[in-house]
Design brief:
By secondary structure, this protein is mainly α. It is 67% helix and 4% strand. The longest helix has 40 residues.
Length: 159
């Protein structure tokens, strides 16, 4: 991919700043992933020595950004790329790795749903209180207190 610098001369690849903007990962994270071995050695500009990311690098970084967003640990990301390089012969192992991550995401989503439900009931509480519906507000407060006691007890802590 050829782009033009502000001076108008052609150069190949994206800078670290351009790659960060395109992928949503910080420059620091890009450099960290390179040091951690998640990115092949990124080509350097001959004259400046600055990193130049190829379209293939950007595609790999985009995959890393997605895997990171799922909460996949670095070792899982490394394993993903090692297996992906094997292609079809690793399809079952890749599927298992991604299914494991899918399960972790589903659990996070259930947890987020519980938090969202809690916040919505708190909104109901404050709305009722603001409207002078003290009995309704008290009922919601009792419901939330009972829910909190049940949740903390089932999670292994007590209140």
């Amino acid at each position: 991919m050829a782009t033009r610098t502000s001076s108008g001369t052609a150069r190949d690849g994206l800078t670290v700043q351009e790659t960060a903007a395109r992928t949503g990962l910080s420059e620091h994270t890009l450099r960290y992933y390179e040091r951690a071995g998640l990115l092949r050695s990124v080509r350097r500009d001959d004259s400046s020595g600055h990193r130049r990311y190829s379209p293939e690098d950007v595609a790999r970084i985009s995959t890393l950004a997605c895997l990171r967003a799922t909460g996949m640990p670095l070792d899982g990301m490394r394993r993903y790329f090692t297996l992906a390089a094997r292609g079809r012969s690793a399809a079952g192992e890749l599927r298992a790795l991604l299914e494991e991550q899918e399960g972790a995401l589903e659990e996070r989503m259930r947890e987020m749903r519980r938090h969202l439900d809690y916040v919505r009931r708190k909104i109901d509480y404050w709305t009722a209180l603001q409207a002078g519906q003290d009995a309704e507000a008290l009922a919601i407060a009792d419901e939330l207190a009972a829910h909190t006691r049940t949740t903390t007890t089932t999670e292994g802590t007590s209140t």
